[in-house]
Amino acid sequence: MKLSKRLQRIEQMVTASYTHIWDCCCDHGFLGASLLSRQAAQNIHFVDIVPELITSIESKLQRFYQNASSNWKVHCLDVSKLPLKQYQGKHLIIIAGIGGDLMIQFINDIHQKHANDNIDFLLCPVNQQFALRRKLIALNFSLKDEVLVEDNRRYYEVILVCSKRDKNRKISPVGHDIWQSDNENQARIVKLYLEKTLNHYNRIQQGGTENVDEIISAYSGKI
C-alpha cells in the first residue's frame, strides 16, 4: 500500500537508531508496516484502541511479515498506557492523525509515568498545533526536527521531539524550521499554511469567545 504524502514524510523522519518504535493510533497499520519493511528498528509495535483494527492488522502481519527481520507486536490499548517499562532500549513513540488536545493528554500521561526516561516523540496533529507546542515547551521537551507537509490540500506539522531538555534545541510555539523553504513549491506551502492559520485565529478573535491575541501576534511575526 502506497503511503500518503503525510505518512511518507513521517516515515522519512525516522532515522535514528531505536530499539522500539510505537506506531500509535495506527489505523490500518500502513506506517508501521513500512517501517517494518525497512527494518527501521529492532521492534515495531502497532497500537490502537479499536479491537477490529488490531485484529485486522495482526492478520495481515502474520500473512506478509511472518519472516520479517524486525520483530513486531500488536497492542489493543489506550496510548496513555503504553507498557514501555516492559521493553528495554531506546523508544520512539509516533502519534499521528488525531487532534492536538488528545495528543497533549497522551503525551502528558506518558511523561508522568516515564519522567526520567529519554523518549523521542514523532507527532503530527490534525489541529491545535499551537496548544501542543506550548505543552511540549512546558514539559521542557527539546526539538530534534520539524517539517511542514501538504497532503490532499491539507497542511500538517510533523514534529520530532525528545523528552530530555536541551537548551540549544528549544521548541518554538509557532515553529521555526517549518517556515523555511528551499524551493518554490515549499514556499507556496508555507505561504498558504500561514494564511490559513492566521485566518483561523482571526475568526476565533472575531467570535469573541477566546482571547487569541498572543497567538495571532506570534504567527504574524512569520509574515
Report on this model:
- The chain is an alpha/beta fold and 223 residues long.
- The chain has 7 helices and 7 strands.
- The chain has a 7-stranded mixed β-sheet with strand order 3-2-1-4-5-7-6, sandwiched between helices.
- Helix 2 links the parallel strand 1 and strand 2.
- It is globular.
How would you summarize this macromolecular structure in one to three sentences?
The protein has 223 residues and is α/β, with parallel strands linked by helices.
Lateral arrangement of strands in the main beta sheet: 3-2-1-4-5-7-6
The residue fraction in helices comes out at 25-40%
Give the radius of gyration: 18 Å
Q: Given the helix and strand composition, which structural class is it?
A: alpha/beta
Q: Which percent range describes the beta-strand content?
A: 15-25%
> Care to count the β-strands?
7
- The total of helices stands at 7
What is the typical, i.e. mean, pLDDT?
96
- The SSE order reads HEHEHEEHEHEEHH
| Largest β-sheet summary | 7 strands, mixed
Spatial gap, N to C terminus: 38 Å
